[in-house]
């Protein structure tokens, strides 16, 4: 149901025709679709103002609306106690022509589109023309331009500054913050297409593609790495030098550390955007034999462990 036309135009119920015309003219110039391209709300307000003006600018229809005989859409309203009659009669016994909307017999109250008179139409046309002229001749921002940058795994973890060469030969310096991931887009303001008529340049949108690493994988802000250890280190434990993205670390390996054991180094993962605390580094041990020397082979031939365990115990597949 349409809103009260007086409320739509913002005028009192005893407003003079000049006040109604002035209120409509102001709203039409404010909300006209040509002056608000792509704004659905403005278009709806323009339509509502036009409909309200159509009704209130017609003295007969306005009087009938004020007496409650028609509603805000110009449709007949039934007097109290009356219903729709037979033979195509509407509420209150009023007949309307077939295939004709309510209120159509009253025509348009004024000339021009959306109920405007000639003067109002000329003014609105002038506004539209001026808006288009300003759009064409005024300052206009340049377009944003998209690029793709391949980033090394460690650059994504630690952060770095890299050069991106554009198709026209121009080089952009791209600062990569720590913790970026594939698909993330960096915005370089003012590095896009040039502006027009003194307008600002657009932005360069840099989509990142992070490469894989031979030893490291990332899980959120945590890093995971498989760490090879010798048989002696695994059995006896002791200090072990661990290479990490942030330099070598010395850690004390517990004795009897079997393959598959995971050791956690806190705070040695990714510090996203430089924020602390950082993630952790998880080391999964992998015991490597290498080529045994003669002494080890001789020892193992004569070695009988005291509480020997079968490493394959429980590996049954059933019948």
Descriptive overview:
The chain is of the alpha+beta class and 319 residues long. The chain folds into three domains: 5-137, DnaJ domain (Helix Hairpins, Orthogonal Bundle), CATH 1.10.287; 145-210, HSP40/DNAj peptide-binding domain, CATH 2.60.260; 216-301, Urease metallochaperone UreE, N-terminal domain (HSP40/DNAj peptide-binding domain). Helix content is 27%, strand content 22%. The chain is built from eight helices and eleven strands. The strands form four sheets. A four-stranded mixed beta sheet has the order 6-7-11-10. A three-stranded mixed beta sheet has the order 1-5-4. It has a two-stranded antiparallel sheet with strand order 2-3. Helix 2 (17-31) packs antiparallel against helix 3 (40-56). The longest helix is centred in the middle third of the chain and has 20 residues, at 118-137. It is elongated, with a radius of gyration of 40 Å. The two termini are 77 Å apart. The model is unreliable at 83-115 (pLDDT under 50).
Key phrases:
four-stranded mixed beta sheet, Helix Hairpins, HSP40/DNAj peptide-binding domain, 319 residues
Element layout with pairings:
Elements (H helix, E strand, L loop, with lengths): L4 H5 L7 H15 L8 H17 L2 H8 L51 H20 L7 E7 L1 H6 L1 E6 L5 E6 L8 E4 L15 E7 L5 E4 L2 E9 H6 L1 E7 L2 E7 L8 E4 L15 E8 L5 H8 L18
Parallel strand pairs: 1-5, 7-11
Antiparallel strand pairs: 2-3, 4-5, 6-7, 8-9, 10-11
Helix pairs in contact: 2-3
């Amino acid at each position: 149901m349409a809103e009260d036309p007086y409320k739509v135009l913002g005028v009192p119920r005893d407003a003079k025709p000049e006040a109604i015309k002035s209120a409509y003219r102001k709203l039409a110039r404010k909300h006209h679709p040509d002056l608000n391209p792509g704004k659905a709300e403005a278009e709806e307000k323009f339509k509502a103002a036009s409909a309200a003006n159509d009704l209130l600018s017609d003295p007969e229809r306005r009087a009938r609306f004020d007496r409650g005989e028609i509603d805000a859409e110009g449709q007949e309203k039934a007097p109290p106690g009356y219903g729709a009659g037979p033979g195509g009669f509407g509420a209150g016994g009023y007949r309307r022509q077939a295939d004709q909307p309510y209120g159509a017999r009253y025509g348009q109250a004024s000339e021009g589109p959306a109920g405007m008179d000639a003067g109002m139409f000329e003014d609105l046309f002038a506004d539209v023309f001026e808006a288009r002229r300003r759009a064409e001749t005024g300052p206009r921002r340049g377009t944003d331009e998209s690029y793709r940058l391949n980033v090394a795994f460690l650059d994504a973890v630690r952060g770095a500054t890299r050069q991106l060469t554009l198709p026209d030969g121009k080089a952009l310096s791209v600062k990569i913050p720590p913790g970026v991931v594939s698909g993330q887009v960096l915005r370089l303001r003012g590095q896009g297409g040039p502006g027009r008529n003194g307008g600002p340049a657009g932005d360069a949108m840099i989509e990142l593609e992070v490469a894989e690493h031979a030893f490291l994988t990332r899980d959120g802000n945590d890093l995971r790495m498989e760490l090879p250890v010798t048989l002696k280190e695994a059995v006896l434990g002791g200090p072990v030098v661990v290479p990490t993205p942030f330099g070598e670390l010395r850690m004390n390996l517990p004795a009897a550390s079997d393959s598959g054991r995971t050791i956690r180094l806190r705070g040695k993962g990714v510090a996203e955007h430089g924020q602390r605390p950082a993630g952790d580094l998880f080391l999964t041990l992998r015991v490597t034999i290498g080529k045994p020397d003669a002494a080890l082979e001789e020892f193992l031939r004569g070695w009988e462990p005291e509480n020997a365990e079968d490493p394959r115990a429980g590996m049954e597949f059933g019948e």
